[in-house]
Write a structure and sequence with these properties.
heterodimer; A: alpha+beta; elongated; disordered C terminus; B: alpha+beta; two-stranded antiparallel sheet; 6 strands; rod-shaped
Chain lengths: 199, 223
């Protein structure tokens, strides 16, 4: 039995390992990178030859985004991260005058803004009870629904003020209506600030 | 005649010579493999540098395009954000505002008709603080959002009541307009009709989002 020296066999093993390592850790990644770079080169050179088309695409997209931004500015309400009840009350409060006889505003406990349990948004319910002229009630409702903050109507009842002597009969001569406006103002938690909507 | 080979050298020496020869062969093979590894390493390094240089040249050539593409990417991101915000607005907001409904209803009233009361209720828009039972799965859109409206008032006669129902039926956002009751009513000594009409609006449809009102200097808001 002829036996080569152990050191030569070890040398053979080491050289095979070195070859394997070179192929596995250097050659193969280099070939993959070269392939990827060649593809990127081809794409870049192809795009470079289409600079006019890319510029046109950019300009069209810029115009589209500008139009969308302009359109959304008129409809997109903000959703503050906190309840901000003070500004809500300021928006809804009207002082008594010859057009507004009474107004009571009650704020409730916050509830989820959507039936979906996954929604992180909540809403502060506010009930406005007022006796005022119909235009005053409409003015308040339009101001609430048209504000730049997301305020929703939930339930509204507007009825002619009843007669004093017969509460079941409306007083057609009175200019006043009795209105109950249940509204809610949506807000989102600070953790969801990334989703905060700003017009 | 048979031949028989034999060495003059002792067997141990022959074995050592053969072993040395085998060792030299293995060492030579190892050298070759190492050389191949070095060549492969060199080629790989060259290929890496070559492809990098080519990519750099292509990037230099395509730099203006890359810049435009970055702009396109940023614009697309803004567009996506706007779409998301609008979708959120549709999910959380009322696409049919109450003031618009009341105005539309009052516009459809024929001359002489009056409204005694109007009730609008937006259903399934809010959540509840009640905890969901364990094990019950949430069913999305199980109850679609809707607006239920009931108006009560008086009209001169049945023809006017019919006109109110017809006028409301023509409004594109309303459905299921129905006359719930119509009965005689004495209004300031004259015969009139007291009516009750109800209708529904589907809030899940893609209605145009209501605009933000602009506040005038006098403090009045215009839709």
């Amino acid at each position: 039995m002829i036996r080569a020296s152990g050191s030569s066999i070890a040398l053979l093993g080491a050289s095979l390992a070195a070859l394997g390592a070179v192929i596995g850790f250097v050659a193969y990644p280099a070939v993959r990178k070269a392939e990827t770079r060649a593809l990127e080169c081809g794409r870049l050179l192809g795009r470079a030859s289409q600079i006019d088309a890319v510029t046109r695409e950019r300009d069209a997209l810029k115009q589209r985004v500008e139009d969308a931004r302009h359109a959304s500015r008129t409809v997109l309400r903000s959703i503050p991260s906190s309840t901000d009840q003070a500004s809500l009350m300021r928006m809804l409060a009207v002082s008594t005058s010859h057009d507004v006889l009474t107004q009571v505003i009650n704020a409730g406990e916050s509830i989820p803004a959507s039936p979906s349990t996954k929604s992180p948004y909540r809403a502060v319910p506010v009930t406005v009870e007022m006796t005022a002229t119909f235009p005053e009630v409409m003015n308040l409702l339009t101001r609430a629904e048209g504000s730049d903050r997301l305020v929703r109507a939930i339930k509204l009842t507007i009825e002619k003020q009843p007669k004093r002597e017969n509460r079941r009969e409306p007083d057609w001569d009175s200019p006043f209506v009795k209105a109950t406006l249940e509204l809610d103002a949506v807000y989102g938690s600070a953790a969801d600030a990334s989703d905060e909507v700003k017009p | 005649m048979s031949r028989r080979q034999f060495h003059l050298l002792p067997t141990a020496t022959v074995t050592r010579v053969r072993a040395n020869r085998a060792t030299r062969g293995i060492v030579f093979s190892s050298g070759c493999i190492a050389a191949v590894a070095v060549v492969v390493l060199g080629l790989s390094t060259w290929l890496d540098a070559f492809s990098r240089a080519k990519l750099a040249a292509a990037q230099k050539e395509g730099a203006p395009v890359l810049q435009i593409e970055q702009e396109v990417g940023a614009l697309r991101s803004v567009e996506r954000q706007l779409v998301r915000s609008l979708a959120l607005q549709r999910t959380l907001g009322n696409t049919i505002p109450a003031n618009g409904v009341i105005r539309a209803v009052s516009d459809t009233l024929p001359e002489g008709a009056l409204i005694k009361s109007i009730t609008l209720e937006y259903q399934n828009v809010q959540g509840t603080n009640r905890k969901q039972r364990k094990g019950t799965k949430e069913v999305e859109n199980a109850n679609p959002r809707s607006l239920v409206c009931v108006i009560e008032g008086i009209a001169l006669d049945d023809r006017d009541v019919g006109a109110i129902v017809d006028g409301l039926s023509k409004l594109p956002s309303l459905s299921k307009v129905s006359l719930e009751s119509s009965r005689s009513y004495e209004f300031r000594g004259k015969n009139a009709r007291e009516y009750k009409v109800s209708f529904i609006a589907d809030l899940e449809k893609r209605w145009r989002l209501p605009e933000i009102a602009t506040v005038t200097e006098s403090g009045e808001s215009k839709p």
